[in-house]
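Summary for the steering committee. One of the milestones for this cycle was to obtain a three-dimensional model of the protein with thymidine-5'-diphosphate bound, which we needed before selecting residues for the alanine scan. The sequence and ligand used are listed below.
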Amino acid sequence: MKYTTVLFDLDGTLTKSEEGITRSALYAAEQMGFTGYTKEQFMAFIGPPLYASFQKICGMTPEQAEEAILIYRSRFSTIGWAENEVYPGIAQLMRSLKKNGAKIAIATAKPQEFAEKIAKKFGFAPYLEAIVGPGFGNKHESKAAIVKKAMDLLGGVPVMVGDRCFDIDGGKANGIDTIGVCYGYGTREELESAGATYVVDTVGELTDVLLDDSPRAKGIFITIEGVDGCGKTTQREALLAHLRELGWEIQLTREPGGDEMAEKIREMILDPANTAITDLTEAYLYAASRAQNVHALVIPALDKGRAVVCDRFVDSSIAYQGGGRRLGTERVARINAEAVDGCMPDITVYLRMEPEKALSRRLSASEPDRLEREKASFFERTYMGYEELYAKEENRARVITVDASRSIEEVSKQMIELFDEKLWALEG
Ligand code: TYD
């Protein structure tokens, strides 16, 4: 790698912050009686000082602008800072940089307090050596001074990455190379005329410039498990939204199923008309679908650095075929060892729900498939299959157990908290 220290601007480079900024500005304008503006009109608030924007865009007097800023800040400091999302691919980039020994810092004109909160909430914190922003009482510190502070802290061979001419100017003032990114709030012309060393259009291109032929970090493999009726589909969506917010590119898959071939196997397994399938055949069919999914979807996506989310995986076979069908966990594990080929999840979300509660939920749901038509005792054994599997020491490191019997919001909240903890532990 040409650069061993990477300094990132925050807004428009790592995160898309327009929601929080425009909504807070709209709120302030409305409170002051300046109504009827749209988010599009207020996109111009991103970048320039608020004081100027309130006057220019809304026609406020300087005194009104001062008042509007106070209202803006009251909303931004409580809600607006979190109305933010990380650009897809940034999580992979950060991991790959770290894996290759680069030092990473945020060098931002945003008040340091908010930059720190954002880094924590959006998952950069484990990758960063420093967050440098203007300190309190020094709001107008120049980008050049901020970049200098970060360079002094980190050493190495630095490069400044940003979406606006100010970022490029700040890097150049310190004599270092710069990379302008066009996916943020600046334009290619702006970045080129500021004299950026490189100008890139996408996070992928940025990754190529920074890493050249150094190895990329592998993705993370996440599976979701639980008995039928545990609320898996709803919580899966919440987890996907969370991963997106953290800047992961995602490959979603499911079992049985995944790609076209595996979906054909799924149809065969779940068709209520296929009553002749023996228990052992069923176990092999799930394993066949899994082998297809692992090799056609999971491994290639992990190689691209993605977060792979798989709705059910090998643990389902252990619980359903091993426990529910009484084939025995050892036997089912053996059948599956070949199918998964060593590809095991980094994190498994177990949505734990007592079988009686899951049954009452299922009864109110749609037309049952072949498996869902099983007797209550089948699901009790399946539940016990999960419980025994996850009580084993060797599985503790990857499994988070979520109490799925509570409200949707409570379950999501607990799941995401436990997930983040596990992810940060994995990321060191
Ligand atoms: P499920 O994900 O619940 O599908 P849907 O949400 O569309 O109902 O999975 C289908 C069924 O297959 C479910 O009852 C669990 C069962 N199953 C096994 O018995 N063994 C396995 O290995 C897997 C992956 C699923």
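Key point for the committee: The chain has a mean pLDDT of 95.
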